[in-house]
Amino acid sequence: MSKKEKIKEFINKHYVILIPICLIIILILAFAIYNIHRLYVNHTTDEKAAFYQYFAGRKVEYEGTLKINRKNNIVDLDTGKQKIELTSVPVYYQEDKIKVLFPKSMTIFRPLSGYKQDKTVNFSTVTWDEKKKIYSLKSNEYDAEISNSFLYDGVDLYFFLTETNIKIGNDEITLSPMSYIRVNVGNSLEYYDHESDTYKMMEITTEQVIATNKDFEVNLSSDKVTNYDDIILLMGPSNLNEIK
To answer: Which residues pair with 49 in a beta bridge?
Structure first.
């Protein structure tokens, strides 16, 4: 009997056992390939940095560790011993004064792009390029200039890239670039001015809070943007497509 015939005879006699064994080997190989791919895709490197945030007027400084994936996207922030609960409150870099991290997805409103609304992903960053004089957004696959835009958390927080005038009833304040404001309608408002590194809180009742600059006017009390004769309702990030 030839070698081929012997192999054929062996297979015919033991195929009931061989088929499950082959299936098990295939499953093991598929599982191993899947895990190798998953480990490759999910591999992150650590980068330490110093941050600060304001909570109810109190400045909290801390050392944190950023988790950065293979696409150079930030996917997490470990706040260390401080155990900071990360919300939509912007995270400012202590040393890099022209960079801000947004732990949660935000609506980005772009008046110079047809009043378009999109959303960022968690842990997006906004950076000011001093040489080019532009602001850039890094949000997953998106890494490009954003003109005179603002970010909104879908609840009560607005972050303005450029200098913005805030009218509160008959009073006015001016926020420097990369500052934010929170409006609790009929109760209070609080704002952080980046240039002066100051945080202030004030009570409001029926006053309308309006933010304006050369490119937009937004009613922070009703979350509406005025575009000439049109009124645009701002949407929360959960209702929008990711910026591309």
So the answer is: 64
Query: Tokens for 168?
Result: 């509160």
- Could you tell me the pLDDT band of residue 148, with boundaries at 50, 70 and 90? confident
Dihedral sign (CA 91, 204, 109, 165): negative
Average pLDDT of the residues in 81-103: 91
Instruction: Say whether pLDDT at 41 is over 50.
Output: no
134 pLDDT exceeds 80?
Answer: yes
Query: Chain-centre distance of CA 32, in angstroms?
Result: 33
Q: Is residue 221 part of a domain?
A: yes
Residue 180 and residue 134 in one domain: no
**Domain-embedded: residue 150:** no
- Are residues 123 and 49 part of one domain? yes
Tell me the C-alpha distance between 84 and 86, whole Å: 6
